[in-house]
Specification:
Elements lengths: L8 E5 L7 H11 L3 E6 L2 H14 L3 E4 L5 H13 L6 E4 L18 H22 L8 E7 L11 H21 L4 E8 L5 H4 L4 H11 L8 H12 L10 E4 L8 H6 L2
Parallel strand pairs: 1-2, 1-4, 2-3, 4-5, 5-6, 6-7
Helix pairs in contact: 1-8, 3-4, 4-5
Length: 264
């Protein structure tokens, strides 16, 4: 049976370490035959991503700080000059100041709000604009990562929840803009996973402990499940989907208060 991503090239932003969802996605893409292009933001990340890229047999490892338009432009130009066609873009980038994830949301600073929106939401617009022209005439797939905190209140998720809400709206608008070029834009709303970024949310352990009591599957999300869902969206099997938020969270998103209390 042929691999699902044979002959395809995927640009993956956000492979920060072995615990990141982007790393799990990169592993699954490589397993399915994709060529990988990984990016890093700044010299502090460079060595780590180069080591991970070597393990993943990535074709290219390139700089791309999503807060710098010149680096996004340089990424696209580097790929264009190398004759690289981008079949899939995976956007797994998010950031907020730690203080804004630990104090009351009402105390969010203007600068902290702008930072979270810039890195976590606007960056999807910027990289999509730069890389969409490199996608084949037959189309491509853009995938981003979101979380249920976009529509539900999770204590201390705060400004990141607002950024994820914006990100999901961006998915819909990009899907409309890029649809005529047969480019699909979707998001995976992954359940809570013990990533470095999630641990940055104060008391995040309470969410990880609580979900198995309430979710229909009675467990937390496996990163491999998120990765396999990304494979589906990147492959021809997902050719009919765009503008969607795909929940991969052990079913937690369907639960209401009464049902949750009954599950205890």
């Amino acid at each position: 049976m042929p691999s699902l991503l044979d002959g395809k090239t995927a640009v993956i932003l956000g492979v920060a370490n072995k615990w990141s969802l982007a790393y799990a996605i990169a592993q699954a893409f490589r397993r399915e035959g994709a060529r990988l292009v990984l990016t890093y933001a700044g010299e502090r990340q460079k060595l780590t991503v180069e080591e991970l890229g070597a393990e993943l047999e990535a074709d290219r490892i390139l700089p791309c700080d999503v807060q710098k338009d010149e680096e996004i432009t340089a990424l696209a130009e580097n790929l264009k000059q190398g004759g690289v066609k981008v079949d899939t873009l995976v956007h797994s980038v998010a950031f907020a100041n730690r203080d804004d994830l630990s104090r009351p949301f009402v105390e969010t600073s203007r600068a902290g709000y702008a930072l979270a929106q810039d890195v976590s939401a606007y960056s999807l617009i910027a990289v999509s604009r730069a890389l969409a022209p490199l996608m084949p005439s037959t189309g491509g797939s853009i995938i981003t990562l979101t979380y249920l905190g976009s529509t539900r209140v999770f204590q201390n998720y705060n400004v990141m929840g607002i950024a994820k809400a914006a990100l999901e709206a961006i998915v819909r608008y990009l899907a409309s803009d890029l649809g005529p070029s047969s480019i699909r834009v979707n998001a995976i709303s992954a359940g809570a996973v013990k990533t470095t970024s999630f641990r940055g949310v104060r008391d995040s352990g309470r969410i990880l402990e609580g979900v198995p009591r309430l979710a229909p599957f009675r467990r937390n999300t496996d990163p491999a499940e998120v990765a396999d869902s990304a494979v589906f969206l990147a492959s021809d099997l997902g050719r009919g989907l765009t503008g969607n938020i795909l929940y991969v969270d052990a079913g937690f998103h369907i639960m209401g208060l009464a049902a949750a209390e009954d599950a205890k």
